[in-house]
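Quick illustration, no need to memorize.
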Amino acid sequence: MSLFYGFITGVVFGFLLQKGQVIRYDKQIAALRFLDMTIVKFMLSAILVAMVGLYLLEGMELIKFSLKPTILGSVITGGLLFGLGWGILGYCPGTSLGAIGEGRLDALSGILGMLVGAALFAQIYPWMQKTLLLVGNYGKITLPQVLGINPWIVIVLFWLAGVLLFRWFEQKGW
C-alpha cells in the first residue's frame, strides 16, 4: 500500500511540476540567473508544507524520522557538483526527467550524466570513506536539536521567513 501512496504522490507532484512550468528549460535558466523565482517559490512552498506535514505525522507517531549524518565535506562537494551540473545542463535531476516526459530530448544528456556520475561515485566511494566523509561529520542532527528548541518554533520561523520572501519576490516582480 505504501508503494501505491508513493506512486500517487509522485504523479501529483509531477503534475504540479508540469503545471507550474518549473520543468521548462527557460524557467531553469531564469532561476539560475535570478530573473524568475518561479522555481524557488515552488520548492519553498513544497518545503514549508512538508515541514508541517512531516512533523504532524511524526507527532501522531505515524512515521519515525530516519536521519542521515550531517557531513560537511560530502554536502559541500555534492552541492557544488549538483549546481555545476544544473548550470551546464539547464535542468536539475528531477526536472530533466520531467522534461523527458514532455518529450524534450535535450535532457537525455543530463540523465546520461546522472548514470555516469552514479557509476563514478560507486567507484570512488571507498576513497571517500577515508577522506571526504570524515570532514565535518556532525552526526545525525536537526536544526531544532542544534538550537535546543521545539521543532514547531523553527517551523513557525521558517514560515514567517518564507512569507516575507514571497512578498519580497512579488514586490520585485519575480
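The radius of gyration is 18 Å.
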